[in-house]
Amino acid sequence: MIEQQVMQREELHQHLEDGMQVVTANIRLSRALQTEFEHRAIMRGLQAWATPEILQWSVWLNNAWQDAVLSGELSAQESLLSTEQVQYIWASIIAASSVPVLRVEATARQVSAAWQLLQDWQCGRKWEDYLGNIDTREFYHWSDEFEARCLEQKWLTEAVLAQKLTDLFEQGSAALPGKIILAGFDELTPAQAKLCEALQHSDCQVHWVELAGEDSTAVQLECVDQKKEVATFSHWARQKLENNPEARVALVAPDLSAVRSLVTRTLDEVLDPSSQQPGVCLKHRPWNISLGLSLSQYSMIGTAIDVLDLARTESTMEIIGNLLRSPYLSGAVEETGARALLDRKLREMGEPIVTLRSLRYRAEEKDKPWCSPKLANGLAALEGVIKNFPARASAVQWVKVITRLLNAVGWGLDRGLTSDEYQAIEAWRKVLASFSGLDLVSGEASFTQALAILRRLTAEKVFQPRTGAASVQVLGLYEAIGHQFDALWVMGLHDGAWPASPRPNPFIPLSLQRRLGMPHADQTQELANASLITQRLQKMAAEVVMSFPAKQGEEHLRVSPLISDLPRINKNALELWQGPSWREVVQQSGQLCVLVNDIAPPCEQTLVSGGSGIFRTQSLCPFRAFAEYRLGGRPLQTLQIGLDPMQRGSLLHRVLELFWRDVKDQQTLNAMSDDQLNDRLASVIKTAVSEMADSNPKTFTRRFTRIESLRLQSLAFEWLVNEKGRAPFTVQSLEQKREADINGIRVHLMIDRVDELADGRRLVIDYKTGKVSPAQWFGERPEEPQLPLYSAVEGENVCAVLFGQIRADGTGFNGVVEEDGLIPGLPGRSRQLKEAMEQWPAVLQEWDATVKRLAADFKAGRAEVDPKKPATCTSSFCELSALCRIDEWDELV
Q: Looking at the predicted structure, is the pLDDT value of residue 220 above 80?
């Protein structure tokens, strides 16, 4: 029986100097002990010392097995599988089973963990134990299939290594180490205990040690919430480092993954304020966190995956946008601006899916601001590799193809790499090596299948770049065991999180897990484990603070019973750093200045791109007009599934344009029966949809085309029935392009429609599929001056200015008319519209003066931040607040 003993740290280091092997419970403790030993050896002046073997348990098992194979003491017929290979086998078994599984890969991970538990606890499987539910029954069958495959193929898994080595040591068939120290283990599994007993019986000394802690003072602290908890720790740690730059400070969190982003952001703000400056490239942080991110979350690796996705000949606009903004492709520095404009161009086209051919075509467009020749060359090289794609290939062959694909676009070859980026590439190569290893357990696959596997491996690979020594360490609960610090803070110890709730494996009968004492099987076990860890944490530093949040959202929390007996202190009892935050430093250094006026340089261009939008934005907010139409500060278009509101409106405009170009007047319309009208509409709808489908082929699938056509048929039919009730008219112009000069500002306009009555008077009509109101035409700063502008451009003899509202909830005209009855239902009960009718044509003259004044202001450079109403920014969907900084102005006033 292996008995646990307490060992002083100095005694452990003496054993290390004597060359004794140390086997730890986790890899982080292995690295920490290695670093600590090297530091102590150097401090003692030991120049020639052998590096001690400090290995994690799983690494030690693998090494011992490989040593037995290499020494010839063991046949090499059995192949030792990697974790990725084992999971692939489980996933293939689960996918082929008769029971449908929604998330095969996630299930495979849990099933693999269940299999590991059975081997660690040396538990045989009896069918009667697994009858409880469908999960356990299926696991029983899957395990039979897994064992059969491993036996047939002579495959060996890491789960059975402990038992295999036990047999070898008992038979005297493997070389033994002289002494072994087990460190950082809370308990030994039956398989570990049996292996250690076999070592002892074979004259190998095995010591299971617990490192002695320090005499410490531990207190509990209640914080308002999790955010305040992390902030208080950060200021506490900053003050510790101010007092002693060599101090070792640690933060331990029970659920580190849940608070990772909050902790890293807060530590940067408090411990390294310079990191908040825009454009700063951090070389070294004063803190280190043990939990890395998924490898796929690192931008360089994300770019590689996106390139491979594009190699399928099409990708989503989101992925294309990532590639166009990525600095890791050839020519990215020289073509930064052009690629950003290409991103905007593709978004304006509105297609959520972009083909590789289309992307290359746009990148090659000469004399266009988005022309990106180096990108186009890379895409051409990519297409060259794709032409030689095999239909199916082995994992090793696909790795060669993947390497050629990435080289074709110059991935990572056109810039100097930082240390983190270089390490990320090394991690990527290891993932490719693991992917290649799947050849042993898998057959050939298509590129799409290979990419799916590579995506999963990259997402599952947790990567944390190696950094230099850091004064502040952020650790998970189980990673902290065995370490020592000058000051320790343990956060999140409320009764809902500590002790943790049981997490039994769903594929092993719960009764069996409890009977054998498997980890996380019941609350009693979790409580005992948490109590032991809490006691150890309290001995890891001379000063220990154990905190908990009082609230989590709207939920009120209580202190964990495991620390409730500790003396409670308040925040004021701690020595906290009181310096200003980086934000406060910036605000305090700011100086207010008085702006007499906001006048930009006069607009020297005579022809300005923007049409009627210039007048609308100048009226809503002069700065917005200046930013959008003179600086080009427009936000990127947000893509959505199907057509956006503007595209749907454009399609309806086109349908009505095609209809009236043929029908021409109301007399012809009235002569058509409902069937004839529907047939005519069906014909023009087919033409209009076909035109838009040419530029949006991925959107206009067969089903979508049918749905959109039915929508257009219903709306247009209802609208044209309404038109039959008007006074006789002839359509004079449709989608008429006009160039107008308004007070020295020349703009291109597109007037939807102008009708002419029998007496020669004209009506200006603008189709609208959104909600609009003529009330927005009036005043010194009209919210929608488009139709007033059109009336001014159209000139004399205008008798009505109208919105043609065409919506699913109703169709009809709305606007200003010269006389009652000219348009059925107008002016209606609206007092404002009645007054406009009574003041005709003075209202037209007023509109003409308004648009001329807006043009004069724009030309003169009037650009003050002056929204018409407090809600204008929100109601008009303005996204320029970061540029005009109106939010900061609101804070000042």
A: yes
